[in-house]
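User: Hello! I'm new to structural biology and keep hearing that structure can be predicted from sequence alone. Could you demonstrate with TlpA family protein disulfide reductase? Please show me the input and the output so I can see what each looks like.

Assistant: Of course. The first part below is the input, the amino acid sequence of TlpA family protein disulfide reductase. The second part is the output, the predicted structure written as tokens.
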Amino acid sequence: MLRKLNDKLPLSAMKTLKINHLFLSTLLFLPLFSYSQVQLGMKAPEIHPEGTYNCGNISLQPESLKGKIVVLDFWATWCSPCVAAFPENNELSAKYKDKGVVFIAITDDPKEKLENFLKKVKIDFCVGRDDDQQDFKNYSVTGRPAMFIINRDGILVYRGNHLTEETLLEVVNTNGIAPEQKSSRPEVILNGGFRGGEDPLYNGMKMMTGNTQSCTPELIDQLIIRPSLETNSTGSFGYRMKQDHVGITYSSGTLEDIFVFLHDLPSTVWIANMVNDSCRYDVIYWRKNDSFEKAVSEIEHALTSGLSITFDSISEKRPVTVLSLNKSNGSVISPEQLEEGTDKAYTSIGNFLTKLEELTNQFYLADDSLKDKLIHNQGMEWKKLHDANPAEIIDFLKTRGIVLKQETRAITTYIIRKN
């Protein structure tokens, strides 16, 4: 479930958030500029960052980059998939450096925020700071991450939101990319990105029709629960509070996924689903309300009554694995200790617990020494955590001074039944 890629926060804290930490599909479509698109095959615009880092003896002057293959990565410290891609891009940069490939990451983050970030996250290639956003504008960046490849002749040959080694190798070998064979089937965008309270399917329709002038969904009081058309997705969510309105969207979630979100549970291990319902659902909520708790209550009531189900709690003693901090250290901090711009260099302890539960189907808890703590994630960044096995995760946590102990505790689990 994509929720696990975000810092895990209780619903009671949601109203304090100023930015929705949504995941990939949402981030990629948030509009930044409305300039005309640069086209593949055209001469690449020059870049003129106001500050550079990690460039060594590499000059970003056009003459110095002539004859090089240049990979441009437009990113930001707040962009989860941007930060998650750095370890892989570090490897590609090192592997193809001797073949004339130059990686340049360009951000519009303020100087202090960027420099704080660079102290916590390893980037082995050149970073440029675009204070006036002119490079973003010249490249018509409409979302992040945005990746470009410029060939040896200074021509744009690739634009996308993710770079694979296969794509880069094709440019290294041929100085270009063969055009894709277009399908005769019309493109259907089931999720056009969203903020809490917006309908991702509606936003997808706007993107397909090119209609950017239509009314915004946030002006309409709505509570929608429907079977999702996005059945191949593993789910994504967003939430926000704007003035006196609450917005919550969950796209393509199973019943267990949605109840985990509504009740702020670590994972679906805490829920026994006794209902023969494997459908995925969309939940879109935007109403005048003074708290997330009331909004969640309305959604749950509509879900249980509409599907004729109950969601009940059960308290009993169960075997659990308890995590605790053996000794305070700089790798485990509280949210108040975060420096500006470094939040994506840390992963909440809740995300580690969730991943362990999903992999083992067992219960994991953090004691008071780790309550609400953040773990410096270098060496177990998001992508590595996503692909890791339990032993790898546990070994990483031990390097951060965390110990695990088997106990029996009284815990509250939940069950979904037919009404």
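User: So the tokens describe the shape?

Assistant: Right, they're a compact way of writing down the 3D structure. Reading them back into a model, for example: The chain has three domains: 2-22+192-307, 30-174, 317-411.
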